[in-house]
C-alpha cells in the first residue's frame, strides 16, 4: 500500500522563474488521481464543521483546488483574478510577490456582505497574494472563515503575515530551510 503524502507528490524545480527560486510545482500532485483527491479531501477535512458559504480562490493555481472544494461542498465559487481578466465592474488591489508585483481583482458583486468565505490557494510564500485576496474579500464585506493552502513556505513569512491579520491559516505541508 502506498504511504505517499501530499508533500511527496510535489516536485521542486530550481531557478524557476528566476535564479535562486526553488519552485514548488503542484502539477505533479494534481496529475496523480490519488494525490489530487488526497489534497482536496485533506483541505476539506481541516475546515469540517465550519460554516462556509462561498469558496474564493486565487488566480491561477488556486482555481484548480478551489473549484474542486466548492464542488465537493456544494457551494458557489468566486475567482480573484489578475488584472484585466474579469469582464464586469471590479475592485482592484496591488500586491508584491516573491518575484515581482501585480494587481488582483474581484467582481464587485461577487460576495454578499457578511458571507462566510473560505480562501484557497496552492501555495503561501510571502503572503502578498493572499493578503490582496483578503483585502478584496473584506472590502466586499466577506467574513473569512480561514485560508487553506497545499504548501506553506514559512521562511517567507506568509503564515505570520496572515495570522497577524487575525486569520486562521491551514496548509497541508511545508518546505523550509532548504
Ligand atoms: O505568497 P506569495 O509570495 O504572494 O506567493 C504565492 C502566490 O504565488 C503563486 O502564484 P503566481 O503569482 O505565481 O501565479 P499563478 O498561480 O498564476 O502561477 C502561488 O500560486 C500563489 O498564488
Ligand atoms: N517558490 C515558489 N514555488 C511555487 N510557487 C511560488 N509562488 C511564490 N513562490 C513560489
UniProtKB/TrEMBL annotation:
<dbReference type="GO" id="GO:0044209">
    <property type="term" value="P:AMP salvage"/>
</dbReference>
<keyword id="KW-0328">Glycosyltransferase</keyword>
<dbReference type="Pfam" id="PF00156">
    <property type="entry name" value="Pribosyltran"/>
</dbReference>
<dbReference type="GO" id="GO:0006166">
    <property type="term" value="P:purine ribonucleoside salvage"/>
</dbReference>
<feature type="domain" description="Phosphoribosyltransferase">
    <location>
        <begin position="49"/>
        <end position="153"/>
    </location>
</feature>
<dbReference type="InterPro" id="IPR000836">
    <property type="entry name" value="PRTase_dom"/>
</dbReference>
<comment type="subunit">
    <text>Homodimer.</text>
</comment>
<dbReference type="GO" id="GO:0006168">
    <property type="term" value="P:adenine salvage"/>
</dbReference>
<dbReference type="InterPro" id="IPR029057">
    <property type="entry name" value="PRTase-like"/>
</dbReference>
<comment type="function">
    <text>Catalyzes a salvage reaction resulting in the formation of AMP, that is energically less costly than de novo synthesis.</text>
</comment>
<dbReference type="GO" id="GO:0005737">
    <property type="term" value="C:cytoplasm"/>
</dbReference>
<dbReference type="GO" id="GO:0002055">
    <property type="term" value="F:adenine binding"/>
</dbReference>
<protein>
    <recommendedName>
        <fullName>Adenine phosphoribosyltransferase</fullName>
        <ecNumber>2.4.2.7</ecNumber>
    </recommendedName>
</protein>
<comment type="pathway">
    <text>Purine metabolism; AMP biosynthesis via salvage pathway; AMP from adenine: step 1/1.</text>
</comment>
<keyword id="KW-0808">Transferase</keyword>
<comment type="similarity">
    <text>Belongs to the purine/pyrimidine phosphoribosyltransferase family.</text>
</comment>
<dbReference type="InterPro" id="IPR005764">
    <property type="entry name" value="Ade_phspho_trans"/>
</dbReference>
<dbReference type="InterPro" id="IPR050054">
    <property type="entry name" value="UPRTase/APRTase"/>
</dbReference>
<keyword id="KW-0660">Purine salvage</keyword>
<dbReference type="GO" id="GO:0003999">
    <property type="term" value="F:adenine phosphoribosyltransferase activity"/>
</dbReference>
<dbReference type="GO" id="GO:0016208">
    <property type="term" value="F:AMP binding"/>
</dbReference>
<keyword id="KW-0963">Cytoplasm</keyword>
Amino acid at each position: 500500500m502506498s504511504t505517499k503524502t501530499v508533500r511527496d507528490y510535489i516536485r521542486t524545480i530550481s531557478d524557476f522563474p528566476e535564479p535562486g527560486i526553488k519552485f514548488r510545482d503542484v502539477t505533479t500532485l494534481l496529475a496523480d488521481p490519488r494525490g489530487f483527491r488526497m489534497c482536496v479531501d485533506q483541505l476539506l477535512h481541516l475546515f469540517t464543521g465550519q460554516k462556509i458559504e462561498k469558496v474564493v480562490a486565487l488566480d491561477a493555481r488556486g482555481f484548480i483546488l478551489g473549484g474542486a472544494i466548492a464542488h465537493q461542498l456544494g457551494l458557489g465559487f468566486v475567482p480573484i483574478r489578475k488584472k484585466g481578466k474579469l469582464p464586469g465592474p471590479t475592485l482592484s488591489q496591488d500586491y508584491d510577490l516573491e518575484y515581482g508585483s501585480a494587481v488582483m481583482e474581484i467582481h464587485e458583486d461577487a460576495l454578499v456582505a457578511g458571507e462566510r468565505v473560505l480562501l484557497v490557494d496552492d501555495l503561501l510564500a510571502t503572503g502578498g497574494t493572499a493578503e490582496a485576496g483578503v483585502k478584496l474579500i473584506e472590502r466586499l464585506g466577506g467574513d473569512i472563515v480561514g485560508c487553506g493552502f497545499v504548501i506553506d513556505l514559512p521562511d517567507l513569512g506568509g503564515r505570520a503575515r496572515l495570522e497577524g491579520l487575525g486569520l486562521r491559516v491551514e496548509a497541508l505541508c511545508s518546505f523550509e530551510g532548504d
